[in-house]
Amino acid sequence: MTAPAPSATAHHDALIDRLPPHFRFGAATSAFQIEGAADEDGRTPSIWDTFCRVPGAVDNGDTGDVACDHYHRMPEDVALLADLGLDTYRFSVSWPRVQPHGRGAANPAGIGFYDRLVDELLARDITPWLTLYHWDLPQELQEAGGWPARDTAHRFADYAELVHERLGDRVAHWTTLNEPFCSAVLGHVEGIHAPGGRSFADGVRAVHHLHLAHGLAVQRLRSAALRPLDLAVTHLLGTSGPATDSAADREAARRADALGFRFYLDPILRGRYPEDLVDDLAVRGIAIPVRDGDLEIISSPIDTLGVNYYRSMRTSGADDRGATADAHGVPVTRNLPHGGLPVTGLGWEVMPHDLTALLLRISHDYPGTPTVVTENGAAYDDVPDAHGFVDDAERTAYLAAHLAAVAEALTRGADVRGYFAWSLLDNFEWAYGYDKRFGLVRVDYPTQARTPKRSALWLRDTARRVRGDVVRR
C-alpha cells in the first residue's frame, strides 16, 4: 500500500483527536451499486434494473449488470476494508437476490452470499452494519403497486424477517431503510430515480408506507431477536434556512423543513406527523393515508438514527420570475445554493459547518437519540497515475473537514457514535452512472482492479490514531 497520506490541517486534527477511542470508523456501499451478477443465482429484476433500460434515464445508458463485480470479488473487498483499518462495514442486502419476486421463501444462493459476507467480516474483526433496503425494490412488487401501495410495507416486513432468520445470530446492527426521501421523492415525484414516477400524491403515499414498512420490520426484528439488536433507520438530512429575511422566504423555509426534515423524523421519533405539514398538504388536496394504529407501529423504538449528509440549501418563497405561488395556487418553495462556497465534482457546495449544526439540532429536537453519520463523501474528477493511484487531495480535505465537524458536534453535546465514508468503492452512482466517483478506492472498471486513493490512506491513519486497537461487534 502507498505511504501514508499527509495529515489534515492542524485545526481539523485537533478536533478529530477529541473523538473517543470507541468511535466507529467505517465505509458504506449498497448492493445494486457494487454487486453486479444481475441475473445470477436466482436474482430477479429490481426497479433499478428496469429504470436503467429507460432511454435517457441514466447517463451513458449505464446499468448495474456488472458494477464492481463485488458478488464475485467479495473476499477481496473485505480484505481492503481490513487493510484500511476500518472497524465497521455498512452494506445493503439485495431484496430481489434474497427473495426473488418479493414474495415467498428465501433464495438459498442469494441469502448464502450475505451469509458468507458476514462470516468474512467477522473473521477480520469488522462489524457488519446491515441495511435491508437501499432502493432495489423487486420489479414484481412495483407492478403490484410499489411503495404507494400499502401492501408493499407488509411484503417488506416478511423480507426483513427472512434475512434475520439467516443472519440474526451474527448481525447486531440492522438498518431498515436508506433515505426514504430518495425512494419517495426522487423516485415518485421528480422521476429522476427508479421507478421514474411524477406524482406528488404518490410520493406522499410512498413516504407513509415506507415509514410503515420500517415500523413493521422493527417489530418483527425485535420479536425474533436472538441477541440484543441495534435497530436503526437512515435518513438523508440537511439544514434549510431562508434565502433572505423576507416573510415569504421564512415561510418557505418552514414548509421545506416540514416536508424535507420533520416529515421523516417526527413520525418515527415523536409518533406523529407535523401539524403544519398536514395543513400544507391539505392546500394541495392531499392527505397522508394514516390508518388507526399506524403511528404506534411507525414509532416503535429504535436504537440509532442514521444520518446521511452531503449538503444544505437556502429556501426562497418566490420562483425565478418573482411569483410566490404556482398556477394552482400552491406556494412556491424553491431551494437555492448559498453561493461563494467550494463545490464538489457534482456542483454540491461543501458545507461541513452545517453538519455540526444538523447533529446539534437532532440532539436538541429529538433528545436521547444516538446518531451515526452513515454516509458522507464527495465526488471529484479523479485522475489516476500510471499505477492507478489517485492523489485526491480535495476528497481528503473534504473528509477531514466533515469528520472534524462531527467531532465538534460531539464536544458540544451531540450523541454521535460513528462516521462512515461514502463510499468504499467507486461504483454505479444511480442516474449519474459510472462517471461520478465517490470511492475511497478507485475501481478500474475494464479490469476491476482496486487501488486505494490518498483519502483512503488518510482515513486509515486517522482511524488508527483515534481508535487504536479497540474493536467492537
TrEMBL record:
GO molecular function: beta-galactosidase activity
Keywords: Carbohydrate metabolism, Cellulose degradation, Glycosidase, Hydrolase, Polysaccharide degradation
Reactions catalysed: Hydrolysis of terminal, non-reducing beta-D-glucosyl residues with release of beta-D-glucose
InterPro entries, sorted: GH, GH_1_N_CS, Glyco_hydro_1, Glyco_hydro_1_AS, Glyco_hydro_1_beta-glucosidase
Pfam families: Glyco_hydro_1 (PF00232)
EC number(s) reported in the record: 3.2.1.21
Protein name as catalogued: Beta-glucosidase
